[in-house]
Amino acid sequence: MKILNLAAKNGVYSCNVYLVLGSWNALRDMNTLVDVGRDPSLFERLDQASTGVGKKRVDQVILTHSHYDHAANLPAVRERYAPVVHAFSSSLEGVDSLLEDGEELRLGDRLFEVLHIPGHSYDSICLYCVEERVLFPGDTTLQIQTVGGSYEIGYVLGLEKLCRRDIRGIYPGHGDPILRNYNEVLRSTLRNVLCSMRQEDPSLARIWEDFDPRKECP
Question: Per-residue pLDDT tens for 157-176?
């Protein structure tokens, strides 16, 4: 699998746009854009990418959520490359396939699991590859260092799912990739969220006990 970040540092407020390709650009590989951003200079870099002989430059687009900085280029991408567009929300015009939590999609030459984790937005998803131990989280918050505040139950449940996976590489919606073991950071985030929410929602006690019964809230 190859992951190319097509975002430019040119002052246009946008997001990271990842082009996911197979290692050998085989015909069966799914050339995939994870998000499309809003920077029109994307197309110059995309057209220069080596995406394989006899293949569509973009087979599919997967939107991590529908915020404009991640999705504004979608009409132009559809017109230029005619990809299949996947998203969790039907609110955007041009979405061909509505994603479901737990669904699997092929990106490049690898399978990725769709994880619905609301919080940043109601339609936020993450994409996880068990073989490569790689995560595309979009704008989902993965690091919370303090206790306090209130969180959507769906976000807490989503964090629990992430903590049950082995994650060694993160390609976020903004900023540089994190290419190291991220499991303890996620566990610390879940612990802080659980401590914040425990008295507010007693039903989370089950997750707390299942997750790490040896730890206690401060």
Answer: 999 999 999 999 999 999 99
- Please report, for the chain, the start and end positions of each structural domain, with discontinuous segments joined by +: 2-211
Asked if residues 64 and 71 have their Cβ atoms less than 8 Å apart, the reply is no
Percentage of the chain with pLDDT > 70? 94
Nearest residue to 49 via CA among 31, 70, 72:
31
Residue 215's pLDDT is what?
62
Do residues 212 and 166 lie in contact, with contact meaning Cβ atoms separated by under 8 Å?
Answer: no
Contacts of 140-143 with C-beta under 8 Å, sequence gap 24+, read 140/64, 141/189, 142/170, 142/172, 142/182, 142/185, 142/186, 142/189, 143/185, 143/189
Angle between helix axes 153-163 and 183-197 (nearest 10 degrees) is 150
From CA 39, how far away is CA 104, in angstroms rounded? 29
Q: Partners of 5 in the beta sheet? A: 18
- Quote the pTM value: 0.94
CATH class label, 2-211: alpha beta
The Cα diameter of the chain in Å comes to 59
Measured CA distances, 169 to 1, 26, 216 (Å): 13, 24, 29
> For residue 17, what are the CA distances in angstroms to 3, 37, 114, 116, 188?
10, 6, 18, 19, 28
What are the pLDDT digits (tens) for 35-63? Answer: 999 999 999 999 999 999 999 999 999 99
